[in-house]
């Protein structure tokens, strides 16, 4: 395990922000740390980075205890917490050169990082003129400059437009598959984590509700086919007679467990061919709130 915590607990005064957290992050994983705003994600990350002192429990990174091996461990971690620490009056390249100088890293790494985070064409542009997505990618470039084994990112897609989100996601997948990094990334967006993570931990009110592989999570967050049709109750009864499992039905819509696109097409054709007008049909993913309810009900 690249990250292993046991019984990690942290209090701000009388408020317990992290409750007996036991994380297990395997080497070579993209570990999605998922939870709503205020769940304790950033506090956990600050504990992992030793920016907050551990009060109760233990943290092991690279199988070494954090407190007693702090400098050695932190030298192998790159991080981006909340917002990237960049100088807006400097160019992207100058930002990286400045960090390389501080870390005593050869300047040739700067060009490698610009290439990796797709900022080569904007290398000589002032960082203040960068889009949000470009700033996030520059922040990730700064975090990767020292060639760390572990990358810790706190909400890296926050505030990004769809293009920026895709850019960051593709970069993180590339870092793991091509460069053998381990990535620990926090988010409050379930759909985004599902698209890139190999492993997931779900936290709420400081408590770990779920931890496992993305396949195990997807078994819990089983998507549904949402069908808006004329006479939904009759349509649901007809589907049941034709051995189609119906998960739920109301006056306006009915829901069927999703398997694949082919299944959606077959259901649509079956209803239309038998006199039921289908106004809309589509895949509906469980949102984070519904997933929390499913997990707590199964616990």
Short description:
The chain has 299 residues and is of the alpha/beta class. It has helices at 41-48, 70-74, 92-103, 108-116, 132-144, 162-177, 190-196, 214-220, 232-241, 261-273, 288-298, and strands at 3-12, 15-21, 24-25, 30-34, 56-61, 64-65, 77-80, 150-154, 182-187, 199-204, 207-213, 224-229, 248-249, 253-257, 278-284. The chain folds into two domains: 3-213, 3-Layer(aba) Sandwich (Rossmann fold); 221-298, 2-Layer Sandwich (Alpha-Beta Plaits), CATH 3.30.70.120.
Give the SSE string: EEEEHEEHEHHHEHEHEEHEHEEHEH
Give the number of domains. Answer: 2
At the fourth CATH level, what is the homologous superfamily of the largest domain? P-loop containing nucleotide triphosphate hydrolases
Using the CA coordinates, give the radius of gyration: 23 Å
Stretches with pLDDT under 50, minimum 5 residues: none
Strand content: 25-35%
CATH class of the largest domain: Alpha Beta
Which key terms come to mind for this protein?
alpha/beta; Rossmann fold; Alpha-Beta Plaits; 5-stranded antiparallel beta sheet; 11 helices; globular
Q: In terms of topology, how is this protein built?
A:
Elements: E1 3-12, E2 15-21, E3 24-25, E4 30-34, H1 41-48, E5 56-61, E6 64-65, H2 70-74, E7 77-80, H3 92-103, H4 108-116, H5 132-144, E8 150-154, H6 162-177, E9 182-187, H7 190-196, E10 199-204, E11 207-213, H8 214-220, E12 224-229, H9 232-241, E13 248-249, E14 253-257, H10 261-273, E15 278-284, H11 288-298
Parallel strand pairs: 4-9, 4-10, 7-8, 8-9
Antiparallel strand pairs: 1-2, 1-3, 1-5, 5-6, 10-11, 12-14, 12-15, 13-14
């Amino acid at each position: 395990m690249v990250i292993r915590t046991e019984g990690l607990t942290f209090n701000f005064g009388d408020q317990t922000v992290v409750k007996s957290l036991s994380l297990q992050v395997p080497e070579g994983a993209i570990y999605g740390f998922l939870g709503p705003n205020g769940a304790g994600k950033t506090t956990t990350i600050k504990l992992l980075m030793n920016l907050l002192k551990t009060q109760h429990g233990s943290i092991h990174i690279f199988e070494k205890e954090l407190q007693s091996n702090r400098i050695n461990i932190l030298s192998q971690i790159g991080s981006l917490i909340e917002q990237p620490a960049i100088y807006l009056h400097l160019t992207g390249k100058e930002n990286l050169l400045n960090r390389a100088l501080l870390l005593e890293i050869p300047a040739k790494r700067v060009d490698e990082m610009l290439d990796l985070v797709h900022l080569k064409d904007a290398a000589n542009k002032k960082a203040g003129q960068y889009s949000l997505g470009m700033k996030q990618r520059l922040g990730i470039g700064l975090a990767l400059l020292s060639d760390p084994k572990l990358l810790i990112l706190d909400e890296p897609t926050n505030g990004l437009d769809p293009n920026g989100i895709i850019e960051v996601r593709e970069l993180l997948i590339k870092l793991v598959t091509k460069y053998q990094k381990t990535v620990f990334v926090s988010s409050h967006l379930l759909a985004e984590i599902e698209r890139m993570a190999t492993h997931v931990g779900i936290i709420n009110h400081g408590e770990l509700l779920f931890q496992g592989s993305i396949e195990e999570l997807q078994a819990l967050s089983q998507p549904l086919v949402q069908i808006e049709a004329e006479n939904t109750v009759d349509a649901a009864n007809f589907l049941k007679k034709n051995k189609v499992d119906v998960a739920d039905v109301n006056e306006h819509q009915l829901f069927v467990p999703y398997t694949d696109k082919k299944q959606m097409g077959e259901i649509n054709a079956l209803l239309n061919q038998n006199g039921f007008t289908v106004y809309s049909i589509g895949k509906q993913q469980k949102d984070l709130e519904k997933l929390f309810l499913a997990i707590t009900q199964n616990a």
